Amino acid sequence: MNRLAKFIMALIGLPLSISHPMAAEMTESRQDHERIRQIASEYLLQLSTAQPGVADISVGPVDSRLNLSECQALVPFLPTGSKAWGKTTVGVRCTAPSAWTIYLRANVQITAEYYVAAHSLTKGQVLAIDDLSKIKGEISNLPVGFINNPDQAIGRAIQISVSSGTLLRLDSLKNPAVIQQGQSVRVISRGNGFEVTTDAQAITNASEGQIAKAKTANGVTLSGVAKAGGIIEISN
Question: Which residues form the signal peptide (predicted)?
């Protein structure tokens, strides 16, 4: 074969020798599935810091059949109706260079301390530390408002009778009444440079800071802020 023929064949073969690298450069990069799971897990861990205790987080795998384009900024989020603990769903969204969204199953278990009734409690009973029993366990399935600090319960009155071991909740407690219906009270009316005190009889129950009503001996109904010691304050 002469030199000219070899030269022509070399020219013809040149594009073939460089076609594969060029095609590789033009192939779009694919998103790493484990990175998606990592982003979702870190997001759920961040949300769990709002809860007391220690979180154990597991995020399900991405469907291996999904071929997602590589994302420059992965944004995790909770879909509407999902919660940040227990069995839940977490979403991961990509907006650039290509838009896509994926949803992953997850389980967030949080172990922390909470309080139950140490023994039977009767309605209206003002709680003391001996009335509380501390439990350590999974809280992700507990109802909202459970007691996780004894200071949330001590000195407050329980609104319903409960048996030993019953979970204590904030919505079952209230501040004890400092004014009782039928009680003799002192109504103090204060204004700019004056103070008037009147004896009366309470016609409502009230905790400290609530509005209480009382009736004087001549039948006048007064209302003011309930204070400890059987006092109702009226500010003018």
Answer: 1-23
CA 157 to chain centroid, in Å, comes to 25
Task: Return the domain boundaries, the chain.
Answer: 33-110, 112-174, 177-235
* CB half-sphere exposure, 43, CA atoms < 13 A: 24
Residues whose CB falls within 8 Å of the CB of residue 227, separated by 6 or more in sequence, listed in order: 178, 208, 233
Angle at 143 between CA 140 and CA 147, to 5 degrees: 90
Whole-number Å distance between alpha carbons of 57 and 164: 32
* CATH fold for domain 112-174: Type Iii Antifreeze Protein Isoform Hplc 12 (3.90.1210)
- What digits encode the pLDDT tens for the residues 177-219? 889 999 999 999 988 888 899 999 999 998 888 899 999 999 9
